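Exercise 3.2. Students should predict the tertiary structure of the chain below and write it as C-alpha cells, then compare their answer with the key that follows.

Predict this chain's 3D structure.
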Amino acid sequence: MLSYRMHREPSTPRIALWRKLKRLGFGQISDGLVALPADARTREQLE
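Answer key:
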C-alpha cells in the first residue's frame, strides 16, 4: 500500500505521478491511496 498527498494545483506533478503508478500496475483504492504489486520491479522503481 502506498499513501500519498499532493497539492491539487498545479496538477501536472500529480498527473505525472498517477501515470507512473499506473504503468507499474497499481490498483487505486481511493484518492491518494493505491495498492502496488509486491514484486522486484515495483520496489526498484519506488527506490
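Discussion points: Residues 18 and 25 are 11 Å apart (CA to CA). The chain has a mean pLDDT of 84.
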